[in-house]
Amino acid sequence: MAVLDLNDKQKVIAYQKFVREDPRGQVTQDPLWGDLKANWGHVYVYHETDGQIDAVLTVLTVEAVPGKLLGYAGRGPIADINDIGLIKAMIHEALAALPDNVFLIRLDPEVAYSDGLNEAYKSAGFVTRNRDVEHMHGNIQPRKNIVLYYDGRGEGASPINTEDELMLHFKRDYRNQIRRAAKDGVTVTNGDSEADVRAFFETYVLMAAAQHITHRPIDYFLQMQQLWQGTGLFKVFLAHFEGQVIASGIGFSYGDEIWYMYAGSNRDYAKHYAPYAVQWEMLKWGLSLGKVEYDFGGVGDFVPEDGLYKFKHGFAYHDPHAEYIGELDWVIDEAGYQEYLKQFS
C-alpha cells in the first residue's frame, strides 16, 4: 500500500494505465480528474501485488462544512469491492496523507446494489446511503442509471456485434428517429479540439436554459479538453444541420465502458431528432472499441414520468436497470458529518 508520488513519472503512468484499462476503470479515478478539479485537494493510493497495481483509491477533498473537508472518491475505488479489509486499509492510507480536518471519506463505486453487500459494509463500520435516500440529489452521483449492455443482457436481448444488431436493439420509434435525422440532412462529427468544445458549449447552455438548470462554465470544459486531448479517451460529438451545431454529447472511454457525461441541444430544431443521431454515433463508438457497457448516466427513477428515463430508456429498453450500491461513508468526525447531511434532509 502506498501513496502515489506525482513526481515519479513511471508510477503515475502505471497508475493511469490501471485506471484506464482495468475493466472497472473510471475517469473520475484518473489523476487527470484531480487536475480538472483544480480547487480540490487530492491523494492517490494504490495497492500492488508482485509489483503490479491491482487497486487504486483516488480521493479529492473540498471544504463541505465550515473548516472541515469532505474526501470524495468519485466512482471509486477501482478494486475488488468485496475485499472490505483492503478498502479500509486504503482509506486509512489516504487519511494518513490528508489534513487532520477531513470529516468523511465517501466512496460510491459503480457496483450493483445488493442487500448482502450493503449489510457487509454496514457491519464493517460504514454508513451506507442508497435505498434510504429519497431524493436523487441526496447523492453526489446518481444511483440509478440507464445502461446498454453490448453483451446482450435482459429479456429479449442478444449480444451486439454489428451496427445492424445495435440498431435493432433500440425501440422501433427510436430507429425511425435516427433515420429521420439522417434523411433531414443531420450529420454528426466527433473530435477533441477546442473548437469542438466551444460548439458543444453553445448547445449545452441552450439546453440548460430550456430546462431551467445551472451549468458549468466554459473554462471547465476547455480545461477538460486540454487535459484529455489526444488520449483517445475523450470525444465531443456534434450534430450539424444547415451549417449549425444543433445537438452534442461528450463521452469518456474507460475500462469496459463508454460514459455519456454531458449533452446539449437546440430545441428550435427538435423535429430533426439530432440528439438521437448523436447517441447513435456515440453508441457506435462503444461498439467499435469492443466495450461491454454504454452508460447513459443517471435518472431520477425508472418510471416513464421521469424525463431523463423517458429519453434514455428507448435505446436500452431490453437492458436491466442499473441500481448501484450508492454511497459508502467512512465517518471520521460525526459532528461534521451530521452538519453536512442537513442539506439533504
Number of strands: 14
- Which residue ranges are poorly predicted, with pLDDT under 50 across at least 5 consecutive positions? none
CATH class of the largest domain: Alpha Beta
Which CATH-level-2 architecture of the largest domain?
Answer: 3-Layer(aba) Sandwich
Query: How many domains comprise the coordinates?
Result: 2
Structural class: alpha+beta
* Tally of alpha and pi helices: 11
Identify the overall geometry. globular
Overall pLDDT score: 96
Task: Tell me the β content.
Answer: 25-35%
Q: Tell me the radius of gyration.
A: 20 Å
Major sheet: 7 strands, mixed
The spatial strand order of the largest sheet comes to: 1-2-3-4-5-14-6
CATH superfamily of the largest domain: Gcn5-related N-acetyltransferase (GNAT)
The end-to-end distance, rounded to whole angstroms, is: 37 Å
CATH topology of the largest domain: Aminopeptidase
Q: Level of helix content?
A: 25-40%
Order of helices and strands: EHHEEEHEHEEHHEHHEEEHEHEEH
Protein name: FemX
Pfam family, one: FemAB
Keywords: Acyltransferase, Cell shape, Cell wall biogenesis/degradation, Peptidoglycan synthesis, Transferase
GO molecular function, one term: aminoacyltransferase activity
